[in-house]
UniProtKB/TrEMBL annotation:
Stretches that traverse the bilayer: 12-31, 43-65
Keywords, sorted A to Z: Membrane, Transmembrane, Transmembrane helix
The organism of origin for this protein: Paenibacillus gyeongsangnamensis
UniProt name for this protein: Uncharacterized protein
Amino acid sequence: MRKAPHKISGARWMMLAYLIAIVLLGWLLMLPVSLRPGVRLSFIDALFTAASAISVTGLTTVGAADTFNGFGTALLMIGFQLGGIGIMSREACTGCSSDSRSAYPRESSSCSIRTATTWPGWFIL
């Protein structure tokens, strides 16, 4: 008998997307085109800065103004925006889930504002 292929859950897809975005942004931040002349950025510093941008915390181990040029700063801003969209998407998916194990009570067939804003179920993730 043939086994059905393993399905990846939505939460795992989202985590995979975050991981890919962090690694890609970190790699782009390390490129010379993103840095001021004469500045070098280690892989761990670039990865930390990218993870911080995608998670919308804004922490850096280097001075962003002293390290990144206009292109690098634009990449950081795009990372902030992608992270913000990811947070809002995660909220929408959690808040409007029809799963019976959801932290939100199901009030109707469509997502209501009250349901989506009553309790931050994403905090447990």
